Amino acid sequence: MLSTFQEFSKQYKDITEKQLIEYVSRLHSPAVLKEAMAYSLNAGGKRIRPLLIYAVLSSFGKDPAAGIPAACAIEMIHTYSLIHDDLPSMDDDDLRRGKPTNHKVYGEANAILAGDALLTHSFQLIAEAGHPSVTPEMKLELISQMSKASGAEGMVGGQIADLEGENKELSLTELEYIHEHKTGKILAFSVLAGAVLSGAGEIERKHLERFSFHLGLAFQIQDDILDIEGSEEKIGKPVGSDLDNHKSTYPSLLTLQGAKKKLSEHIGAAHEELRNAGFESGLLHDITDMIGNRDH
Amino acid sequence: MLSTFQEFSKQYKDITEKQLIEYVSRLHSPAVLKEAMAYSLNAGGKRIRPLLIYAVLSSFGKDPAAGIPAACAIEMIHTYSLIHDDLPSMDDDDLRRGKPTNHKVYGEANAILAGDALLTHSFQLIAEAGHPSVTPEMKLELISQMSKASGAEGMVGGQIADLEGENKELSLTELEYIHEHKTGKILAFSVLAGAVLSGAGEIERKHLERFSFHLGLAFQIQDDILDIEGSEEKIGKPVGSDLDNHKSTYPSLLTLQGAKKKLSEHIGAAHEELRNAGFESGLLHDITDMIGNRDH
After folding, report:
1. If you count Cβ atoms within 10 Å of the first and of the last residue's Cβ in chain A, which end, N or C, has fewer?
2. What is the pLDDT of residue B236?
3. How many H-runs (helices) and E-runs (strands) does chain B carry?
4. Tens-binned pLDDT, residue by residue, of chain B (296 aa)
5. What residues contact residue A290 under an 8 Å CB cut-off, 6+ apart?
6. Distance from B272 to chain A by nearest Cα, in Å?
7. Residue of A93, A116, A135 for testing the chain B interface, max B β-carbons within 10 Å
8. What digits encode the pLDDT tens for the residues A186-223?
């Protein structure tokens, strides 16, 4: 089972990365813009969001390839958000996954514009998706939901709340608002995109929605734990930065032990939703374990 | 005729501005984000892009109201581009239409994120457009074309080329590349959006495409002329800034007289395309004259 997951994961990670570069190389645009876009798309990462789309499609017995444009679209949005978050006026980070951040290499103006271009292109990918099983209505639902998940009511709203909460003692409710929006909504959209493309029914969607909610929080709690216990080499950025920045985190609000307990509860609840969803979801159970146990 | 145009223009400018604010006020987002988005959407301007959509629809005898979501989408994209262009790392402008620029009021991080949110929301507006005459296929074509016009192959590409060309003597070809992409593609998309929503045929589209090409260049040449001859009060920013910044412009490459001649040629060619297009286009002729004669 685990080996099936690893093969599946490797296969679709490769397909996604190749396709992302193909999309950018096709553009008729100034060279520096294409380079800056490709630089951050190439920076690696686990490609968890694309993997979620493919895994949902596969769980419904559909062709995972139907999810390639949407998977690349989400990865472009995720990448743009990292580029903009790293800017001097935001988190002012010099390193991302062990490499200099986009603005450190290309300058601030090009970094902002590379982010803008990635965000803009993501919608085109979905609008032009060519797989025969993808209907116009599916594409429009994906575009509408992707905009909600990544815009003012989703990721951008979460980033604003995160910046507002800096150097402030947050309540657990405020912290969860930030994470549910800043990272949760896009993870949830990835799962939803797989469900839309699979033609999932209302009940299956409900279970998947609650599954994503728990998965998203688990993801973020693990992120906070890794900032304390992780290895700088594996994470690709300095550990302990949250503490240095006096940032409210799950461990700071709940103690490290309490955060680990909460992580394990959300992982358990995510598995539970999958078990009740009534379809074959081995790959989604595996992704859940991967998120619970990840070390970078 | 002129009074019809002025009434039409006033009516749909008001509708657009009201609708833009309505879209933002509906968002469930942190207050400062909504304020920053509304601030720049409210900053006035001629709303030429929305007007082009409505005028094309009206020329085909269609209900201009079918274009409201697309018109608001384009105005959001135009507004986001102004917010990002004004940033310290780009043009570093303190004033826009006589008001402090977005980052001067809300800070750089919020300004970047307000721009990101406007761009993201624009695609949702088109995906969720409710007018009964708008089909899913039309929406997908609009989304695909809007992404092309505003992204790496359009406006963002033009802005990159503009930044690269700063403090450099440009050829007329390089200058036209910048303008065709930075401002021309979005103006052309506005016309195309009206054509798509009107169900225009291939030949009509061809004429409208050439019409937009000339209109876009005329618009930019007039912009350059106004930077020399305009009134600071009417433009809402200091005149002479291109000269101070050693920026290549039509007057700097062609002399002021030569630029005026070129403006008048493009205005003439735009009218000519409309006359040959074979449909009733009084409003489009009026917009063309407005662009040729504008003083701000």
Report:
1. N
2. 67
3. 15, 2
4. 456 899 999 999 999 999 999 999 999 999 999 999 999 999 988 899 999 999 999 999 999 999 999 999 999 999 999 999 999 999 999 999 889 999 999 999 999 999 999 999 999 999 999 999 999 999 999 999 999 999 999 999 999 999 999 878 899 999 999 999 999 999 999 999 999 999 999 999 999 999 999 999 999 999 999 988 877 776 666 677 777 777 889 999 999 999 999 999 999 999 999 999 988 899 999 999 999 988 77
5. A48
6. 30
7. A116
8. 999 999 999 999 999 999 999 999 999 999 999 999 99
Of B107, B110, B156, Cβ closest to residue A120: B156
Contact B160 A84 (CB under 8 A): no
Q: Which strand (E) or helix (H) includes residue B95?
A: strand B95-96
Q: What is the model's pLDDT at position A75?
A: 98
Question: Cβ contact (<8 Å) for A27 and B153?
Answer: yes
The answer as to CATH 1.10.600.10 being correct for domain B2-293 is: yes
Stated pTM of the model: 0.96
3-state secondary structure (DSSP) of residue B100: strand
The residue type of B93 is D
How confident is the model at residue B18, as a pLDDT?
Answer: 98
Q: Which of A81, A104, A120, A166 to mutate to test the interface with B (most CBs of B within 10 A)?
A: A120
Q: How far is A281 from A33, CA to CA, in rounded Å?
A: 40
| Interface contact flag, A123 B128, Cβ < 8 Å | no
Contacts of A80 (CB under 8 A, 6+ apart): A114, A115, A116, A118, A119, A122
**Which residue type sits at A225?**
I
Q: Which residue of B has its CA nearest to A163?
A: B109
Could you tell me the residue ranges of all domains in chain A? 2-293
Cα A34 to Cα B277: distance, rounded to the nearest angstrom: 37
Which helix (H) or strand (E) segment is B229 a member of? helix B202-229
Give the distance from residue B171's alpha carbon to the nearest chain A alpha carbon, in angstroms.
Answer: 16
User: Which of A84, A121, A150 is opposite residue B112, by nearest beta carbon?
Assistant: A84
User: Complex ipTM, two decimals?
Assistant: 0.95
Q: Phi/psi of residue A170, each to 5°?
A: -95, 155
Which residue bears the tokens 């580029």?
A83
In this structure, are residues B67 and B193 in contact, taking their beta carbons and an 8 Å threshold?
yes
Q: Rounded distance, CA A143 to CA B77, Å?
A: 16
Cβ <8 Å between B152 and A33: yes
Cβ–Cβ gap A110/B148 under 8 Å: no
- Specify the length of chain A in residues: 296
- Distances A296 to A153, A200, A230, A284 between C-alpha atoms, Å: 28, 32, 7, 19
SS3 of B99, please?
Answer: strand
